[in-house]
Amino acid sequence: MDPGTTNIADDSRILASIPQIEYLLNRNCKVVLLSHLGRPDSSSDNEFSMMPITTRLSEILDKPVLQLPSCKGKDVEKQINQSPHRSVSMLENIRFEAGERKNDQNLSRALANLADVYINDAFGVAHRAHASTEGITHYIPSYIGFLMQKELDILGKLMSNPVRPMTSIIGGAKASDKMGVLRNLSKIVDTIIIGGGMAATFIKAKGFGVGASKYEDDRLSEVRDLMENDRIRAELIIPTDVIVADRFHADANFEVTHVDSIPENMIILDVGPRTTEKYAATISESSTVIWNGPMGVFEWKNFSSGTINVAKAIAGLKDGTTVVGGGSTADVVSKLNMNDDVTHVSTGGGATLAYLEGKALPAVEAILKND
Question: Residue 120: what are its φ and ψ, rounded to 5°?
Answer without folding.
Answer: -95, 110
